[in-house]
Amino acid sequence: MNSNIQEKEVIKRTEAHVKQLFDGEGSGHDWWHIYRVRNLALKISEKEGGDLFIIEMAALLHDLDDWKLKTEKEASRTEAWLHQVQVDNDQQERILQVISEVSFKGAEVETLATTTEAKIVQDADRLDAIGAIGIARTFAYGGNKGRSMYDPETPPVMHNNFEAYKKNNGPTINHFYEKLLLLKDRLNTVTAIEMAEKRHTYMETFLARFCAEWDGEI
Ligand code: ADP
Ligand code: NI
C-alpha cells in the first residue's frame, strides 16, 4: 500500500470500524480513548518522526485485542481487520509489532518498545493514562469492575509478572501506585516526557488532597 490516497482511505475505514466497536465501552477504553491516543501519537510524531501510517493504524487498533476486553481464545481481531482492508504483509507485521509492545504489564515487568513507531504509540497510550484524564479513566475502570475506591487496609502491590498484574483486583487508589505514578519514568520520547510532567504533578496533588479529605483534615 503506497499511495497516500489508499492509506487515507484505509485509515478512514479503520477509524469507523473501531469507533463502532468501542462506542459506549464503559471501562475507560472507549472510542474517545482511542481518539486521544491517535491524536497524541500524531502530535508526538511531529517532533519524533516515525512512519505516520504505521503510527496512526497502530494507535487506532491498539486496544482491539486487549486482554481486558476479550477472551484469550478469540482469534486476533486486529489481524482479521488488517487483512480485510488489504494492508501489505510487511506493513501488517510492523503494525502488529507496535501493538504487541504497547501495553503495561506490571510495575516490575519491563516493556521495551523497539521501534520509533512503538515508542511513540506506547508513550501516547501512557500519557492518556495519567493526569486528569488518567484519574477519570481509572475510577471509571474501578467502578466498571465493582472495585472499592480506597481501602487503607489493602496496600498496593508491585507486580513482578504479567499474570499477577492481570489477576489483581485491589482498590482503585492502589492503581496509582502500581502503575500511574510510575509512568512518567517509563516513557520513551523526550516530547512525551515533557508532556507528562504537568499530568504527573496533577495526580500527585489529587492524591494528597484525597488523603487529606479522607482524614478529615480539610
Ligand atoms: P495499557 O494501556 O498500558 O494496556 P491498561 O489498558 O492496563 O494499560 O490500562 C488502561 C487504563 O485502565 C489505566 O490507565 C487505568 O485508568 C485503567 N485500569 C487498568 N487496570 C486498572 C485497575 N486495576 N484499577 C483501576 N484502573 C485500571
Ligand atoms: Ni489504550
Structure description:
The chain is mostly helical. It has a single domain (4-214), classed as Orthogonal Bundle (Hypothetical protein af1432), CATH 1.10.3210. Helix content is 61%, strand content 0%. It has helices spanning 4-22, 31-48, 52-61, 77-84, 89-102, 116-127, 131-144, 162-167, 172-178, 190-214. Helix 7 packs across helix 10. It is globular, with a radius of gyration of 18 Å. 33% of the residues are buried. The model has no long low-confidence stretch (mean pLDDT 93).
Task: Show the helix and strand layout.
Elements: H1 4-22, H2 31-48, H3 52-61, H4 77-84, H5 89-102, H6 116-127, H7 131-144, H8 162-167, H9 172-178, H10 190-214
Helix pairs in contact: 1-3, 2-3, 2-6, 3-5, 3-6, 5-6, 6-10, 7-9, 7-10
The structure holds adenosine-5'-diphosphate (ADP) and nickel (II) ion (NI).
Nickel (II) ion binds next to helix 2.
Structure summarized in a few sentences:
The protein has 218 residues and is an all-alpha fold. The protein is 61% helix and 0% strand.
Overall average residue pLDDT: 93
Low-confidence stretches: none
State the share of residues found in helices, binned by percent. Answer: 55-70%
Q: How many separate structural domains? A: 1
The CATH C-level name is Mainly Alpha
End-to-end CA span:
59 Å
Q: State the CATH topology.
A: Hypothetical protein af1432
| 3D shape | globular
Number of helical elements: 10
Are any ligands bound, and if so which?
Answer: adenosine-5'-diphosphate, nickel (II) ion
Instruction: Give the beta-strand count.
Output: 0
How large is the share of residues in beta strands? under 5%
Please give the CATH architecture: Orthogonal Bundle
Give a short account of the largest sheet.
none
List the secondary-structure elements in sequence, H or E: HHHHHHHHHH
Radius of gyration: 18 Å
